[in-house]
Structures are given as C-alpha cells and as structure tokens.
C-alpha cells in the first residue's frame, strides 16, 4: 500500500472526532483599538489614538488585554498584525496618567506602594497577554516606538518596521526603570547585551538599521503601506499552516526562552506526545507528499 493511502486510512479513522463547542466573546469593539480581519484567519489590531500619538492609557491597557485574551481562543484567528494609526506606532505610556499616579492622594508610603504595584502588575498582564495569545503576533512599526512601545513589541513574535521608524527605551528620561517587560524581554530576544544596556541607560533614539543589527526587528520596508503588505504576506503564510503545529511552536518557543534546555526538551516531548496524534500531522504529510495545499480544521 502506498504511503499516501496508508495516511488516508489513518485520517479516516480519526474522523470520528467531535468538535468541542467553545463559546468565546468575540466582540472586538474598542475605544482605543480598531480590529479588522484583512484576510481569512488573519486579524489586524490597530492602536487608535492617533491624536495622542497612540499613547497608552488605562483604557488602552484594559482593552489590549481583553482583545488578546479573546484572540487566544478565537477559532477564526491564526495570526495577528499589530500597528499604530497615524504618525507612528506608539508614544508609550500616557504621561498624564504617570503624573496622576505620582500625585495619588494616599499618605502612607506602604499603601501608596501597594497601589503602584497593582497598576504595574495590571499593565504587565496586559502586555503579557500578547505573549500568552497562542497565535503569532507580528508588530509593524512605523514612526515613533517609545518607552511602553518597546515593552509591547518585545512581547510580540515577529517585528518588522518601515524606514521612517525610530525607537527609544525612554524610561530613564521619565525617571523610572522600565517595568512592564523591556528589561525582562529585550536582552533575551536580542544579541548584543552591551548595546541593550547603552540604549536602556541613555534613552537615546535608535534607527531601523541599528534595530535590525541588534535583532530587535527582522525586516525593514520602504514605507508604511509596504510594511503592512509585508506583514500580511507573512501572516497569510502562517495562517495556511497547521494551527496545531504553529501554536504549539509558539508555546514551546516561549517556554524554551524562559527555561533550561533539558526542561524544555521534556516539555516538548510531553506536548508532542499529545499533539502528534492530531489529524494535522497526517494532513500535512499527505500535502507534502502530493505537493498539494492542505486545509486544516478550526482550532
Ligand atoms: C507603570 C509604568 C508603566 C509603563 C511606563 C512606560 C514608560 C514610557 O512609556 S516612557 C515614554 C513616554 N513617552 C514619551 O516621552 C513620548 C512623548 N511624546 C513625544 O515625544 C512626541 O509627542 C512624539 C511621540 C515624538 C510625537 O511628536 P509629534 O508628532 O510632534 O506630536 P506632538 O505634537 O508632540 O503630540 C501630539 C499630541 O499627543 C500628545 N502626546 C504625545 N505623546 C504623549 C504621551 N506619551 N502621553 C500623553 N500625551 C502625549 C501631545 O501632548 C500632543 O497633545 P496636544 O494636546 O495636541 O498638545
């Protein structure tokens, strides 16, 4: 019996699978975000406060978290693009919020400290929802990407920018050590500790070429429209692959970044002990053999 026939037999056997019905809230109406679906299984999340240069306020953090917690389980989503409307990606933390936080009307330092921690943890959770979303997230940066913007893009899977982009780890210039992801993720996802430290300690602006050399981004497009096209092209390719394989890869890459090789190898063997039984394996193998495109059920 040919290998393809054999694979078909195994496929038919597994057809008795019942889809679990998942009920997720798929309401993507937000004040600070615009969410569209430019192609099948591809979502586009745009920061939508251009008049404030997409500065990140409490509503933004709350909505970003809600959006990515929904996308995580949305069966119609396999890849996500993230970009900013208007002149740039984001101006980072909304500074009016920072001054309100600093002038909080609580006398006792301990109690005030707890309130600060609560806000910081809340914002951390918001950005980490991007990393915890099983679907690969592609950041498309044009214009300014400052402070909280760097925290945000370092939680994304892939980062592309346009020639007019510029970056700054601006926190020391507003008097704080970055606290919602940059200091934790930036050194891990790039390859030049010395340069990372220089950028963090000086808060100076850096260019797409520097970001590319550093490994913060992996592609520079001519302009914003070419950037969106490039992101969409990559997202479509990702969306055409087995969602079991792609999402399992993201989960394992994040685990491997944060754990020892030995533990990560154990994790992936346990993971694939389950996932290799998926129909996607047979479908992908059959498609490879027959040089045809496979289509995969929703996940
Ligand atoms: C718990 C702590 C968690 C996280 C902490 C993160 C720290 C950071 O994010 S530090 C970085 C803070 N951001 C900045 O320092 C950027 C400040 N903005 C700028 O440098 C510029 O505005 C610009 C982004 C380079 C854009 O310049 P331009 O295009 O010339 O626009 P402007 O006229 O300057 O701005 C238009 C409008 O937007 C308001 N705005 C800009 N950035 C912010 C911001 N970060 N927060 C609040 N508002 C901002 C600006 O005031 C203007 O408002 P008008 O009312 O029109 O004057």
UniProtKB/TrEMBL annotation:
It catalyses: (3E,5Z,8Z,11Z,14Z)-eicosapentaenoyl-CoA = (2E,4E,8Z,11Z,14Z)-eicosapentaenoyl-CoA; (3E,5Z)-octadienoyl-CoA = (2E,4E)-octadienoyl-CoA. It is found in: Peroxisome. Isomerization of 3-trans,5-cis-dienoyl-CoA to 2-trans,4-trans-dienoyl-CoA. Pathway: Lipid metabolism; fatty acid beta-oxidation. It comes from Brachionus calyciflorus. Pfam families: ECH_1 (PF00378). One of its GO terms (biological process) is fatty acid beta-oxidation. Keywords: Acetylation, Fatty acid metabolism, Isomerase, Lipid metabolism, Peroxisome. This is Delta(3,5)-Delta(2,4)-dienoyl-CoA isomerase, mitochondrial. PANTHER family: DELTA(3,5)-DELTA(2,4)-DIENOYL-COA ISOMERASE, MITOCHONDRIAL (PTHR43149:SF1), ENOYL-COA HYDRATASE (PTHR43149). One of its GO terms (molecular function) is delta(3,5)-delta(2,4)-dienoyl-CoA isomerase activity. InterPro entries: ClpP/crotonase-like_dom_sf, Ech1-like, Enoyl-CoA_hyd/isom_CS, Enoyl-CoA_hydra/iso, Enoyl-CoA_hydra_C. Signal peptide: none annotated. CDD domains: crotonase-like. Belongs to the enoyl-CoA hydratase/isomerase family. It comes from the Eukaryota. One of its GO terms (cellular component) is mitochondrion. PROSITE patterns: ENOYL_COA_HYDRATASE.
């Amino acid at each position: 019996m040919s290998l393809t026939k054999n694979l078909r037999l195994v496929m038919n056997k597994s057809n008795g699978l019942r889809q679990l019905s998942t009920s997720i809230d798929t309401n993507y109406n937000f004040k600070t975000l615009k969410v569209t679906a430019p192609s099948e299984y591809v979502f586009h999340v745009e920061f939508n406060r251009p008049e404030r240069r997409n500065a990140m306020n409490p509503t933004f953090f709350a909505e970003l978290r809600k959006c990515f917690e929904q996308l995580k389980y949305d069966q119609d989503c396999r890849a996500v693009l993230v970009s900013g409307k208007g002149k740039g990606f984001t101006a980072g933390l909304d500074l009016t919020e920072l001054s309100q936080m600093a002038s909080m009307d609580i006398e006792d330092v301990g109690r005030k400290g707890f309130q600060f921690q609560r806000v910081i943890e809340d914002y951390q959770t918001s950005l980490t929802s991007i990393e915890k979303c099983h679907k690969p997230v592609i950041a498309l940066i044009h214009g300014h990407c400052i402070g909280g913007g760097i925290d945000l893009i370092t939680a994304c899977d892939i980062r592309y920018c346009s020639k007019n982009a510029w970056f700054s780890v601006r926190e020391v210039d507003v008097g704080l050590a970055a606290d919602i992801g940059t200091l934790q993720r930036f050194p891990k996802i790039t390859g030049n500790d010395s340069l990372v430290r220089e950028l963090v300690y000086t808060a100076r602006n850096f260019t797409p070429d520097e970001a590319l050399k550093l490994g913060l981004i992996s592609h520079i497009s001519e302009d914003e429209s070419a950037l969106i096209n490039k992101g969409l092209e990559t997202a479509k390719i990702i969306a055409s692959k087995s969602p079991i394989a792609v999402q399992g890869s993201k989960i394992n890459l994040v685990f491997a970044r944060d754990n020892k090789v030995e533990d990560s190898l154990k994790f992936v063997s346990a993971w694939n002990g389950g996932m290799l039984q998926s129909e996607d394996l047979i479908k992908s193998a059959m498609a490879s053999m027959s040089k045809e495109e496979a289509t995969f059920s929703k996940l």
